[in-house]
Amino acid sequence: MNLNNLIDEDWLGGVFRVHRSTFTSAEIAALEQANIFQRCWLYLGHDSELPNAGDFRRRTVAGQPLFWVRGSDGRVRAFYNSCTHWGANVCRVDQGNAEVFQCFYHAWTFNNRGDLVSVPDEAGYGEGFCKEAMGLVSPPRVDNYRGLYFVSFNPEVEDLVSYLAEAKDYIDLILDQSEEGWRVVPGTQKYSVRANWKMFSLNSLDNYHVRPLHSTFFKYTESLGAGDPPVSPPNDFPGTQGRALSLRNGHGVDVFQSLTRARPIAHWHPILGEDSKEEIRSRRVRLVEKFGEERAYLMCNTNRLMLVYPNFALHDIAGVSLRYFEPTGPDYMEVTVQTLAPVDESAGLLNRRLENFLSFLGPGGFAHPDDIEAMESAQLGFRASGPEWIDASRGMRREGTALDEIHVRAFWRQWHANVLGRAKAERDHD
Questions:
Q1: Does residue 85 surpass a pLDDT of 70?
Q2: What is the strand order of the sheet 100-102 is part of?
Q3: Are residues 114 and 75 part of one domain?
Q4: 292 and 204 in one domain?
């Protein structure tokens, strides 16, 4: 296999194609694990999941068993979920609160800061035995941006802020919408998809599929009426109809207006109920006062489909959702979905937010089952021996719209560079 030929790009001819083997090859999947998932920053969790000292969560990241915990000193740490004695898991439940973690195999005990504090029959070890050197081991890099924690297994990875590049601007735009901060709402969706993980990355950016694939949802919402007309944007505000954008380093976002869709922050729609109108409108007023009309318009009247490369989707549409997907082979992945809500949101609006979110993105909603069926159908189609390529050339050689694939091409360029063993793509934009 010639890895250099996996992408066929002809700028002058307006052609960008990706070889279908990128979705089916076990060799490529192995290269992705080595050159992407073991070298990039990967999402771990949100700060609100560990509100108290001793709180912990178990995670699998890039196939590595981990858990992360807020120590008795208030500091958040991540550890490999492996006893330093004979390797068994020391954290055996998905979440909880603990002062210590005891390995069930030989009862070695570690505190919530990772220190080894108890060893049965410690005197049986020789003079060279050192408990201080046998504490739990942390991945090389753990850091957070505004409460979003990431981990990297690469000690030489660039700092997190540099890695996020322009994606951090859109993270700010989302998180600034709440004055009191955000929390992960209890209840996590976990499911598997019989498709290559990159299908989820691409679907997370793609606005081109939304109308045809999710037509039932739009018929439903339109039957409810469009609600109040949107606030007019400032005359000089660019791109109000929507635009696909590369955010460098493989990250991307699709920004588009919210004309007939509800946004609990802060665009009212009949689906949210009359009793929520005043709370939503008052939040808009405060956002305008704090950030000005242009930025408040972006917050309140536009939606965002954002991907933090390689596998973390942050969607700010019917609700703010966090999705991360873990490949377990070239044609299978495990998906975790959570939703964020403002800490200061009323119980009534929170319920409306969750109803709105679940009706579109929930496991039994209008949209998400469509996405899964489409991704799995594409994966089945990749088995066909005739067609060699997928096309990602929409919008080349023009200023992009929300339906174009500028961000998709940026993802593929970064992916290709990584697979070839390079840290960065030669260029991020068309």
A1: yes
A2: 100-102, 109-111, 116-118
A3: yes
A4: yes
Residue 286: which CATH number? Answer: 3.90.380.10
How many Cα atoms are found within 13 Å in the side-chain-facing hemisphere of 247? Answer: 26
Length, in residues, of the chain: 430
We report the CATH number of the domain holding residue 102 as 2.102.10.10
Give yes or no: residues 329 and 391 share one domain. yes
Is 35 within the bounds of a domain? no
Nearest to 191 by CA among 372, 43, 400, 314: 372
Beta strands in 209-331 (DSSP E): 243-246, 252-257, 302-308, 312-316, 320-329
Measuring CA to CA, which residue among 189, 217, 345 is closest to residue 279? Answer: 345
Cβ contact 152:39 at 8 Å: yes
Kindly state whether residue 217 falls inside one of the protein's structural domains: yes
For the chain, how far is it from start to end, CA to CA, in angstroms?
27
Give the range among 101-105, 134-138, 252-256 with minimum mean pLDDT: 252-256
Residue with tokens 């719209």: 401
In this prediction, residue 12 carries a pLDDT of 86
Query: Could you report the per-residue pLDDT of 269-326, keeping only the tens digit for each?
Result: 776 777 778 888 888 899 999 999 999 988 888 889 999 999 999 999 877 899 999 9
Given a contact cutoff of 8 angstroms between Cβ atoms, the answer to whether 299 and 286 are in contact is: no
Q: Where are the alpha helices (DSSP H) in 275-346?
A: 277-291, 293-301
Tell me which residue range forms the domain holding 223.
166-419
